[in-house]
Amino acid sequence: MGYSARYHAASLAAVFLALAIGILIGAGLGDNLLSDTEENLRESLEADIEEARGEADELQADLDRERAFGDRAYPALVGDTLAGRRIGVVAFGDLPDSVASDIEDALEPSGGELASVVVARIPPDVSAIADELGPRFDDLDQEPARLRELASDVGLQLTAGEGRRLGRLREAVFTRSSGEGGRLDGAIVFRAAQGELEPEQQEAAEALELGLVNGVASSGIPVVAVERSDTDDSSIPFFAPLDVATVDSIDLTSGRTALVFALLGAEGNFGIKDTANTLLPELLQPAR
After folding, report:
1. Per-domain residue ranges for the chain?
2. Mean per-residue pLDDT of the chain
3. Considering the entire predicted model, what is its pTM?
4. How far, in Å, CA of 90 to CA of 45, rounded?
5. CATH fold label, 81-270
């Protein structure tokens, strides 16, 4: 190999060596730069998180104070406004302990008496209802309008605390029925979330629910449909076409207050959700 060839080869080797050294140096500097950037980002995020936690703690403290004030003020707002009034609960499908407790907490300072509680079977056992009524009702499962009419009669008799049709159908219609009976002065309605129903079951369920609520409302007493503020699948739209007031947050002080004054006769949709017209009704005074 001549001098030129050896020189050329040496030059190439030097170039490749320089490139390799450059890559190694660059990689080291890049790693340091990336590491510094990650560290700065981490410190910034940690500071933001701590600031957010502090703000959340302050908001929670404010909320706790507001709730404590509401709990203390509630008895003064509703104290004895329902004294001497007998209130019934009509639930569809289920009455969770949390909802039952909310209703009791709302009524206790008001002086209202929880006189009766019924839980309707959903989907209804239409065959059992027909069996109780006799051969003329053998095709009841094919006549939702007739089922709704029967349910309306039962609902009306519930408010009176007695009735022949109520007596015959109580066990077939309700999975739970308790209380002293007697005439009601107001009613609270609750509709539990429903699972997947067959079309026929859904049709029968709606006929029974609409019939019972219409029957109770036709008696002329105040009727209020309720649910909790944390309910995922709201039932308030179901009650929209019916002549009843609604409260979408009975677990809150505002919701309990709205419930009591709706039982006094306030009309509207009350609460904190999109279906509500206003948070609270006018703070009515009971009729003397």
Report:
1. 1-78, 81-270
2. 86
3. 0.78
4. 52
5. Rossmann fold (3.40.50)
